[in-house]
Amino acid sequence: MFLKEMSRDECQRVVAAGDLARLACCKDDQPYIVPINYALLGNCLYCFSMPGQKIDWMRSNSKVSLQMGEFASNRQWKSVVVRGRYRELAQAQGRRDERILAWSILEKRPNWWEPGGLKPVPREISGASAHVFFCVEIDEMTGREACAGEL
Known about the structure:
Elements: E1 2-5, H1 8-17, E2 20-27, E3 30-37, E4 39-41, E5 44-49, H2 53-60, E6 63-73, E7 76-88, H3 97-106, E8 132-147
Antiparallel strand pairs: 1-8, 2-3, 2-6, 4-5, 5-8, 6-7, 7-8
């Protein structure tokens, strides 16, 4: 087995092919990591969540990282790390186009609203939608690939 650095294009292909990432955020020097579904369009990863700890933390510190990859075996895998900035997609009148875009590309994936739409405790049903659409604007993307065989 050997490891190699992936090019930006190779990283882009892995990210575009996937839909589940591990999102890392940080507040007061404490890291927090959770699974999240995403859809890539241009230089943005579009995501959905209900309000909670990750949204609160990203609102206070917009710098985030995501890890996604492909796994064939312990000796053959790809891993990509994305560094970027959280940006909430506003619900304000006149600013809804990007929220609609996020919804339209996310809904093409099966179960796109999981795990962001599920909470471990029951919630009251409300007439207002509390869901949050956001994007991560990509600043940097790096990756490594493990390959079977020798160099």
